[in-house]
Amino acid sequence: MPAVAQVLELAQLAERDAAWKLLRADSAPVVAGLLGAHLGGDERRVDAEELYERIDADLERLRAQGLILPLTAKGYCGEWRSAGFLVRRPSSEARGETLELSPDAIAGIRFLQGRAAPRSSVTESRLASLAAQVRRLAIDTDPDVSARIALLEEEIESIERRIESLRSGDESAIDEDRAIERVRDVLAQAADVPDDFARVRAEFEMLNASLRAKIVESDVSQAAVVDEVFRGIDHISDSDAGRSFAAFSQLVLDPALGAAFEADIRRILDRGFARDLTSDERRALRAFLATLKGRSAEIHDVITLFARALRRYVQSQDYQRDRVLRTLLREAQHAGVEAAAHTRPWHPTFLTLDLSAVALSSVGAIDLHDPAEFAATEEIVTQTTSLASLEELRAIARETEIDFDELTRNVNNLLAEVPSCTVADVLARYPATQGVGSVIGLLSIAAEQGTVDDEPEVLAWQGADGVPRAAIVAAHRFTGAVA
């Protein structure tokens, strides 16, 4: 592309691209930091009111650091939504709205995060992965069957030589540094996959809007779209994006692939080098497949919703009214263009238009007065005040809250003696001082910072009432110090 054309194209992109707007904004650190923390992690969509509360708390702390931030969280979110950084959607679980990052905002925030914590540009595992992909592409695209067979036979011979090396003891497992490098390279590639779902959803929204626009067009050439929808053809699923997503979703939901993937993750986390991974890295490995399945199901629901709405839009004849409205608007615009040649905008028209002065408000904003709420149904008893006992307050706190500090200390003390242990091992060494609360606390810590095996184990403890109890659960194992 010539330099001038490229400059003009980038100039147009700078005007319409939200990612570019975010990068050149004076408040880019605030936008990327707040939205990346609250919407860029495992939680991609948050109720609007809840997000306002979180950001308001962060704004107070930032103001204490000397930053000038005059607006409230609601005001800033309104600006960011207008700028294209946030997408507002109706909540499917309760009345209200949710907010999530737009695909362009995700791209901008990921770029800034990459600049703040740059990844290693060249690693052995990355080069090996590229070489393997190039070789696989060369084999799969070779039209010569004999050549493809020869290349595959070379791979078989290479695998057999490696098996012989393993049997003879000439090849050992890779060292821990290289293993951690490979894991982190995998995590770096996996971090980009969930973000792709936002772009996929945006593509389907644009496709849905395009199909509706074609249906509204009254030209004869667009009648084919209406006829096909009447015959039950699903244009959303049959599009290039729909077929591509269907193939991806089928791969993600393959039960054999999912079981093998989760088994491989468990084996990796059981290795000694996994102790050097952070808790966030271990959590990302465990939750990766579940995240893919959840986001895939969400996109599938969106495709189904769009397809049903499009079919209902055509079958209910609503598009006919939209066609009439479109025709009237075009006629009005055409008349305005003709009138502009001889009539100035400020020329009196001698037309009177009565506008309504009735204030519009939501019925949901009305708070009804209920006198029964203020009626005292029982006699008010005056209580005498007394000094609170510190020991009683501590006992109440232990009854209502799980003592995670005690549980963490017990786990780490046991791990100082053995390389790994299960929840049952911890309970055998340290009794459950809070009964089932201690058991739940240990399982919660293990699920977040340890591993979960397929094999069952029996947990035994004594309840707060002194009665022995037991439960059979999947084995929860601690492989490293917990925090």
Percentage of residues assigned to helices: 55-70%
Mean pLDDT: 80
**Gap between N and C termini:** 55 Å
Uncertain runs with pLDDT below 50, 5 residues or more? none
Determine the number of helices (DSSP H or I, runs of at least 4 residues).
19
Strand order of the largest sheet: 1-3-2
Order of helices and strands: HHHEHHEEHHHHHHHHHHHHEHHEE
The largest β sheet comes out as: 3 strands, antiparallel
Output the radius of gyration: 31 Å
Relative strand content: 5-15%
- What's the β-strand tally? 6
Structural class: mainly alpha
Give the CA-based shape: extended
The number of domains is 3
Description:
The protein is mainly alpha-helical. The chain folds into 3 domains: 3-116, Orthogonal Bundle (Arc Repressor Mutant, subunit A), CATH 1.10.10; 184-341, no CATH class; 402-478, no CATH class. Helices cover 61% and strands 8% of the residues. The chain contains 19 helices and 6 strands. The protein has helices at residues 3-16, 18-24, 28-39, 48-64, 73-82, 103-116, 124-140, 145-168, 176-190, 192-216, 223-230, 240-252, 255-270, 279-315, 318-339, 390-400, 404-415, 423-429, 436-449, and strands spanning 45-47, 86-90, 97-101, 421-422, 451-462, 468-478. Strands 1-3-2 form a 3-stranded antiparallel β-sheet. It has a 3-stranded antiparallel β-sheet with strand order 4-6-5, sandwiched between helices. Helix 6 runs antiparallel to helix 10 (192-216), helix 10 (192-216) runs parallel beside helix 14 and helix 13 runs antiparallel to helix 14. The longest helix has 37 residues, at 279-315. The protein starts with a helix and ends in a 5-residue tail after the last strand. The model has no long low-confidence stretch (mean pLDDT 80).
